[in-house]
Amino acid sequence: MTEVLTIALDVMGGDHGADVVLPAALRFLKRRNDFNLLLVGDRQVIETGLASLGASGNPHLEIQHASQTVEMDELPSHALRFKKDSSMRIAIDMVKAGKAQACVSAGNTGALMATARFVLKTLPGIDRPAICTSLPTITGHTWVLDLGANIDSSPKHLFQFGLMGSVLASAVDGNANPRVGLLNIGEEEIKGSETIREAASLLSASQMNYVGFVEGDDIYSGKADVVACDGFIGNIALKSSEGVAKMIAHFIKREFTRNILTRMVALLAMPVLKAFRKQIDPRRYNGASLLGLRGSVIKSHGGADVLAFSHAIEVAAVVVEQNVPELISSQMQSAMVERKVV
Amino acid sequence: MTEVLTIALDVMGGDHGADVVLPAALRFLKRRNDFNLLLVGDRQVIETGLASLGASGNPHLEIQHASQTVEMDELPSHALRFKKDSSMRIAIDMVKAGKAQACVSAGNTGALMATARFVLKTLPGIDRPAICTSLPTITGHTWVLDLGANIDSSPKHLFQFGLMGSVLASAVDGNANPRVGLLNIGEEEIKGSETIREAASLLSASQMNYVGFVEGDDIYSGKADVVACDGFIGNIALKSSEGVAKMIAHFIKREFTRNILTRMVALLAMPVLKAFRKQIDPRRYNGASLLGLRGSVIKSHGGADVLAFSHAIEVAAVVVEQNVPELISSQMQSAMVERKVV
């Protein structure tokens, strides 16, 4: 007998809560009715929401009541101490208890990371969990981690990020030998800090397909399948990229709406612009994995819409099917046997 | 009697050497014939080049022979020791000797920084020179530094970067009170390292118009006129941004060349796309200042074309007219009087 895999959803988290999470859940189930979803949050809000969506009796949905909500600007330490009955906490508890195989939350990142780490604990050999997401490249996509969970990462941590990213890329993309790069700056001679150089030698000596240093622009060139970096660096790279993309979108829009003529051109160019936008639609990249924990936790963007949140649930589904935590654990064990230092 | 201001150009530096630098020099002089240019490099190459451009007798041009060239992949230490008669070195020597008020080079960044620092020395109170350039924003532009000259910057260094950027923004943009932001990540509670927090308190306590932490995407939102950060971080932010912009350009081109129909739309949309591209044309942002030295040195992108290199000369012209090193020096003196610690 195979138990149906279950994903817990933090219904109250994010900027839009149930208004986005419930329709996203239904959207997901249309594509993947081999999964069950456990809706965690205020029972009445959820029941009312499902009724209005005509989904009250859906056999793939179950409700788990939680009386509290973690606020988007709440301090992680506060959430950890005073929100033990929050939808976020209960969703993670469900993973811990084995009632769900993963959970997805659009709630505040710091609180989610702190709670997940406290409840689930890290895998053997992993010092710090990392946040990992895929970003579009000219040729496909790249997995980048850490995106902000850790600052001042040591060489050992950077090695672990490389390993975890490599496992995720293998599992999700079916890429047997993902190329792992280490984010660095291009200046010769300095070539990054001592930390980066030590991390490079740990990665070189491992079984991983380490391809050396990559620079910021290589994230989007497809030079590596996995880009490992400290969380401060990764966060700045991600946010800068978002900033540039937003600015470009702003300029394109401004030029195309400048006058009646450009507006007419815009109408004609619409299908082309739409096809282009689809390529870099951040909603298609929504769903960051918190890697290195004894359980799967997926972070959705706080402002995610229905399409974006349903994509995050799909990420969770793949991570669950592939049993990513188990894979990371066994890879980490081999790495530790291989090299005592790590 | 006012001496005519002179800018020395490293004619042999960059990917294209004289082929780009000489026409760029003429282009610059068409707009600014109140300047003289000192062309540093192989005399024969320069004379032949000028002759072919019909500019042999131009009274605003002077030639300074240099027998060597610093290679683009040469180690800074090697250039420093063995290339004392290189066009790069002699151009900087001209600034030191007062024969030029600034120099511009498209040569290798590491060698340029090392040589400039060795020959010119840093200003009193400045520990490390920084690389600063302006980047486009939705509302105008932002000055970002450091972009890769320093890694592991201390709070004091970050403070100095803020001060130098603030002086440059004032001098170039005529902005009397530029808003200075400190690049950080958004996670609450961790909110960056101890270093960042200490830098923030130094900046807060200063006369500068410090506006607090900014995130990666704020670089392009126009939230600050100056963004101070460690060189590793700044380099990654800059390169990631370039990578995204390149990827977006690639996707736009691909969609518009997909078939005969999209190609026709592209023809119609061309003027609009051109106007948009002009907004973020990296050539219009070419010319990074090496700040904190006792003299003005401008770094052009190695692959710069004529338009781009002439823009870098224009940056040098403004920096010279405003006497930026002098301004930095006096601001730094006031800051040191103000707070003994800095």
Key structural traits:
alpha/beta, globular, homodimer, Isopropylmalate Dehydrogenase, 2 domains, eleven-stranded mixed beta sheet, 342 residues
List the helices and strands and how they pair.
Two copies of one chain form a homodimer.
Chain A: E1 5-10, H1 18-31, E2 35-41, H2 43-52, E3 61-65, H3 76-82, H4 87-96, E4 102-105, H5 109-120, E5 130-136, E6 141-145, H6 155-173, E7 179-183, H7 194-204, E8 209-214, E9 226-228, H8 231-256, H9 260-280, E10 288-291, E11 296-299, H10 306-321, H11 324-338
Parallel strand pairs in A: 1-2, 1-4, 2-3, 4-11, 6-9, 7-8, 7-9
Antiparallel strand pairs in A: 5-6, 5-10, 10-11
Helix pairs in contact in A: 1-2, 1-10, 3-5, 4-5, 6-7, 6-11
Structural features, described:
Two copies of one chain form a homodimer. With 342 residues, the first copy, chain A, is an alpha/beta fold. Chain A folds into two domains: 158 residues, Isopropylmalate Dehydrogenase (3-Layer(aba) Sandwich); 138 residues, 3-Layer(aba) Sandwich (Isopropylmalate Dehydrogenase). Chain A has eleven helices and eleven strands. In chain A, helix 6 crosses helix 7 and helix 6 packs across helix 11. The mean pLDDT of chain A is 91. Chains A and B meet through helix 8 and helix 9 of A and helix 8 and helix 9 of B.
